[in-house]
Amino acid sequence: MNRRAAPAVMVLVAAVLVVGLGSGVWVWGSSRAISDVEVAWRGAPECTGTRLEKDHHTIRAQPGMACVITVEVHNTGRRGVQLDSAVLPYLGPGGGAVVRAGEIDGRTPIAASVADDIDARVELDHHLDAGETWTLRTLVVFRADGCTDAGAVTFYEWPALVVRSWGRDGTVASPQDLVVSRERQNPGCRMR
Length: 192
What we know:
Structural class: alpha+beta
CATH class: Mainly Beta
Largest sheet: 5 strands, antiparallel
């Protein structure tokens, strides 16, 4: 190796190591901040126009019902994060379930994306500082043309929040499941 090339190679190797280390710290730090966010229901759903099943968790879907599910978002980490959006799987405008999202935190939800109108979504744009807890209220209402069969249907890990830290996004879901029951198939069922 040429004596003049040796310092250039050393500088190049050092630059690659610094960039690699910096990228690793960035990915680790942002992933850690996102994983420090917890999403969980605060108590049982509060319903009008229907009742909860004996387990105090399953919602009996029927015309005129409305249930508020209060969700707490807690940042257990040492860095603040940005709550970008809340997603309610299968409860969007194009979903086929017998229930739909009425409101999320007082706002009318939209389709999760142009290609996906099955999930309901609302922009949150809320900064959650380290150690802070924030409350989100979701309204679930009856969908007259929904096609849930008789029995219970489970929406797993409901809802999910898109959380941002250091320019990276991650999804944090609640460990609770939304369970809805119906005695018979909805007479207004229209397959989409």
